[in-house]
């Protein structure tokens, strides 16, 4: 696609052609789901394919596991360097996110889940900022899968804790006049699905929007020439902002997941 894009820009003689080529490249980068076969030629009839974003998910997971294995291979008496950084993030997630929303016991038990959310999403976001790579979190299927994990803990996990009947009783607040319950209970039930949907859309939309803005600004140079060079500075500023957004979105997804799961595990609070 990159070679095709460059050749299209090179032969384009009018503004409309260049604009269409830039738009095509942006949409290709933001929504690329072309299948990459994992098998040698002649075996393609077997259903073993991965999209480009699927490759990025596996690459990010492998990169994260290798990084943590190297950093945490030995536990020093006085944490320093990368180990100290990882430990600071883990303690923050445990003490400022998990325990406040789920209590001491459940918070400590579920800290590994929220750490997995945070570090995995952060890795995918940062990998997407590397040239020639794509952000897996800019694919709605990836963010949907993450949201489904939270949804299962909100529903199945709560049913295991309170039982099926106890789970549904959690949607009936005490002290509410019974006529209002006919409106309130359905809204609360639908809210469980809306919360998971919001997790999916929030992460997806923020990652896609940032990449589209960066490529749009760079595309101005290709469409208008040297007169649009100041747009490169703007693109660099947005790119640096995207680094901050990568951390922010990982934090927000983790925080909201803890909040939503805590609401269902401890409905009385």
What do these coordinates show?
The protein has 269 residues and is mainly alpha-helical. It has one domain (22-265). The chain contains 7 helices and 2 strands; from the N terminus they run H-H-E-E-H-H-H-H-H. The protein has helices at residues 2-11, 15-30, 52-71, 81-127, 140-169, 178-224, 230-265; strands spanning 35-37, 49-51. It has a two-stranded antiparallel sheet. Helix 3 (52-71) runs antiparallel to helix 4, helix 4 packs across helix 7 and helix 5 (140-169) runs parallel beside helix 7 (230-265). The longest helix has 47 residues, at 81-127.
Biggest sheet details: 2 strands, antiparallel
Radius of gyration: 23 Å
What topology, given as strand order, has the largest sheet?
Answer: 1-2
Q: How many strands appear in the DSSP assignment?
A: 2
Overall, the morphology is: globular
Features:
2% strand, mainly alpha, 2 strands, 7 helices, two-stranded antiparallel sheet, 269 residues
């Amino acid at each position: 696609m990159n070679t095709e894009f460059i050749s299209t820009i090179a032969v384009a003689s009018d503004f409309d052609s260049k604009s269409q080529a830039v738009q095509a490249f942006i949409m290709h980068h933001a929504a690329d789901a072309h299948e990459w076969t994992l098998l040698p030629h002649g075996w393609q009839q077997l259903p073993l394919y991965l999209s480009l974003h699927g490759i990025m998910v596996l690459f990010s997971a492998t990169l994260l596991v290798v990084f943590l294995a190297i950093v945490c291979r030995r536990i020093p008496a006085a944490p320093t360097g990368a180990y100290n950084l990882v430990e600071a993030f883990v303690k923050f997630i445990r003490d400022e996110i998990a325990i406040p929303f789920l209590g001491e016991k459940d918070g400590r038990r579920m800290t590994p889940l929220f750490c997995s959310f945070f570090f995995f999403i952060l890795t995918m976001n940062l990998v997407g900022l590397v040239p020639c790579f794509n952000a897996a979190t800019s694919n709605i299927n990836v963010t949907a899968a993450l949201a489904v994990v939270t949804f299962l803990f909100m529903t199945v996990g709560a049913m295991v804790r309170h039982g099926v009947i106890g789970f549904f009783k959690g949607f009936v607040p005490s002290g509410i006049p019974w006529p209002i319950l006919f409106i309130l209970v359905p809204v609360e039930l639908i809210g469980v699905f809306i919360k998971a949907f919001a997790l999916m859309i929030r992460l997806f939309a923020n990652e896609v929007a940032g990449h589209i803005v960066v490529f749009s600004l760079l595309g101005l140079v290709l469409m208008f020439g040297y007169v649009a060079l100041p747009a490169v500075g703007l693109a660099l500023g947005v790119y640096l902002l995207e680094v901050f957004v990568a951390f922010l979105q990982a934090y927000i997804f983790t925080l909201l997941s803890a909040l939503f799961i805590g609401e269902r595990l401890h409905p009385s609070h």
